[in-house]
Known about the structure:
Number of strands: 14
Oligomer: single chain
Strand content: 15-25%
Strand order of the largest sheet: 11-10-9-12-13-14
Structural class: alpha/beta
Order of helices and strands: EHHEEEHHHHHHHHHHEEEEEHEEHEEHE
Amino acid sequence: xxxxxxxxxxxxxxxxxxxxxxxxxxxxxxxxxxxxxxxxxxxxxxxxxxxxxxxxxxxxxxxxxxxxxxxxxxxxxxxxxxxxxxxxxxxxxxxxxxxxxxxxxxxxxxxxxxxxxxxxxxxxxxxxxxxxxxxxxxxxxxxxxxxxxxxxxxxxxxxxxxxxxxxxxxxxxxxxxxxxxxxxxxxxxxxxxxxxxxxxxxxxxxxxxxxxxxxxxxxxxxxxxxxxxxxxxxxxxxxxxxxxxxxxxxxxxxxxxxxxxxxxxxxxxxxxxxxxxxxxxxxxxxxxxxxxxxxxxxxxxxxxxxxxxxxxxxxxxxxxxxxxxxxxxxxxxxxxxxxxxxxxxxxxxxxxxxxxxxxxxxxxxxxxxxxxxxxxxxxxxxxxxxxxxxxxxxxxxxxxxxxxxxxxxxxxxxxxxxxxxxxxxxxxxxxxxxxxxxxxxxxxxxxxx
Length: 449
């Protein structure tokens, strides 16, 4: 049985790592926040490099040092691509099973390597894996490549080798564990959505020298990296950054442009809850500035007091349902999440007034919206039935003022008008999907393609 050796890098190994890091920064300086967030760990159980969800970067220094700074700089950038692209999370969205982890790692490699090649990673361009090897074009998403690999595995039962995304001495052969030692584990680790290696550390490890990055830290790293990429584009031109990275930046920075205050206007007026504001007049609330006004007759005798209407502002209670079925792409899910934030900002609501629930054929646990981080986790990826969402909302103890359903439209709908007004946020939906939406639903189209 192989003995696992995972240790803190020595002083000499750290010097090598810093040199590789500097090389990577020369090629893609905007990746600095990801690169410096890595926690290097010496580990001879990996072939070259691997990363876990806590941003621990496992390095086989014995195998990598002889390959030189260029090779290792490009390999570090490869792992950055998995992290910035959130491939571990996309694996969950894609419903990747344990036995599919090797194929998913390969799908992620395809999606990363064309961008790295365009950024000048010459060793990877010569020896890394690319989508052409499965007859597909470059510049597609990991989800696209995974769909193709699933079909290939179903029809021909191929055995795609994991972890071939990094540059290697021989095409498709990153390392062979030679020298009489047991072969190290290949692949980019569970941080890339690949198979979890037996070498991966617990959350707090090595006396705090390799503690895992928190979800909040990773989110901040992605946001700051997106900002760095945007600044690099502004200074050096759009073509100075690979297109795949630019697309991820657009998804991170994209804000809703839907005029929700107008789209939901008619429903706001039906809202049950009210608060002081400058929206409309109502005798349900007295005007405090006119509390002491007196009503007199022609002779000047006081005969009563004026009851003046006060200002009210309806506060909608919105229940937002996010279609997380398998037909909805990761990009469209990101768009849906942006629209939740758009509703929150434009209507000034959050918490119990803006509940978010994921739905496929199952209605999952509802969450109070307090920002994007509160709805970052996705549940589902099965079939689709938005009838369950509408039933769930109408039968809730606290019935909302309006239901918003973000979907691609590939779902059945109730035959009868529900008790609660429904707005269908149709994201990149087809014409037939739009035509199938009942007349009682208000449709808001969002097209990003």
